[in-house]
Amino acid sequence: MKKxxxxxxxxxxxxxxxxxxxxxxxxxxxxxxSNEVNFVIESGTSANGIINKLKDANLIRNPLAAKIYMHxxxxxxxxxxxxxxxxxxxxxxxxxxxxxxxxxxETIHLTFIExxxxxxxxxxxxxxxxxxxxxxxxxxxxxEFLEPLIEKYxxxxxxxxxxxxYYYLEGYLFPNTYxxxxxxxxxxxxxxxxxxxxxxxxxxxxxxxxxxxxxHEILTISSIIEKEAVKKEDRAYVSQVIYTRxxxxxxxxxxxxxxxxxxxxxxxxxxxxDLNNVNPYNTRLESFVGLPAGPICNASLESIEASLNPASTxxxxxxxxxxxxxxxxxxxxxxxxxxxxxxx
Length: 344
Prior knowledge:
Blueprint lengths: L1 H25 L9 E6 L5 H10 L6 H11 L7 E6 L4 H9 L7 E5 L6 H11 L4 H7 L3 H10 L24 E5 L4 H17 L2 H7 L3 H14 L3 H16 L7 H7 L10 H4 L25 H8 L8 E4 L6 E4 L2 H11 L1
Antiparallel strand pairs: 1-2, 3-4, 5-6
Helix pairs in contact: 10-11, 10-14, 11-14
């Protein structure tokens, strides 16, 4: 009889230990790799419903274990809102974020301004995340980094891998304010920005298809517009000038492309050597016909829209007054020279 009791107790103990091990494993993160997920809790959603949704998003291993943990440990209610969760977070970490409305102090907000280059964006990222700038600049330009992204996003294709392009993702990272986890990898940071680009370009997909231009060409035109004009009306005029010059097999003659080609910022002066420098971006060269190899900055939605909707004018030239920002457009070369003489 005593032997039977010992066997029964041993079985019960083994079951209890198995349940404890199952419970602890079930509360672990689903992955060791960083993989961010945008998670939305709508107002009125029950706690059980939220847990089931977490399972559907592959953010937790087992909904039953999560529900047990919730009843045993969690005292705060989940808050409605949009959250940046990660598959390397445990149930404890996820519940903490959801209970505090996302204010866990473990995120970084970064604002990327339109008209800035990929190099400038990466410098901001390197400082915010304490990453080596040279390392991430090199990493982001490797085929190992890029090929999975080309497979994932419809607007990325082999066009960006041309040997003439300085930085393959230049022009493809949408300028906006983002919230990242402090432990985010470079890949997750870039993917979050590309997700935003995809949202913006999805709304223009039909216009892009009708344009007969590739996304790469559209973003290249958009980036030139972004650098040349500030006002919405001026952007449409600059767009029209670009299309007119392309149609007439003229060189674009845009200083902003020359600056990018010789890697100078717009506050520096262009020398004669810069203007004559042979590179895949210098449209000031008379022998350079067509678009530069790729975008020269990351453009705003307004500039992208302008690239798809040029103004209905006959302008061929323009000159910008650097003191006031006003741009003077004309179809007459002599008038252009007059503008240049007055406002240089």
